[in-house]
Amino acid sequence: MMNKEELLAKIKELNFPLGDYYILSSGCLMLYGLRDKINDIDLCISDELFTSIKDKYNLKDKNECGFYKVNDYLEVVVNPKDTLKYDIKDGCPVEKLTTILDFKLKRNKEKDQKDIINIQNYLQKNTK
Predict the structure, then answer these.
(1) What is the pLDDT of residue 127?
(2) Most buried residue among 32, 80, 88, 95 by CB atoms closer than 10 A?
(3) What is the dihedral of CA 84, 87, 89, 93, to 10 degrees?
(4) How far is CA 109 from the centre of its chain?
(5) Distances (CA, A) of 63 to 68, 75, 77, 104, 116
(6) Predicted confidence (pLDDT) per residue in 97-111, tens digit
(7) What are phi and psi of 35, to 5 degrees?
């Protein structure tokens, strides 16, 4: 498990170029104050960034969700750079909360219910 400070330190340590990645799901929710602890970091990265890191991290096989496991705490999914849409929170590129909400509403698992309520409340208070 990691807290917000550990998340930010690990992201900084990666030194990935802004515009070539953003933080997904639980890491994003943590930066918005909607989670206290996370198990791992999921990133969406550009094709170009993937090409530049795939040999360094020996990225060959995707898991069942389409992610490459970089190390014990980091997984990445690859998309074309022109499709990367994100917001900035605490100096980091993060998945749009509306995108996470749409995904969680469609999946609608029991584990998503608390996140759905928290995201809806956050958006209601912070979007005027």
Answers:
(1) 75
(2) 95
(3) 10
(4) 19
(5) 6, 10, 10, 20, 25
(6) 999 999 999 999 998
(7) -145, 145
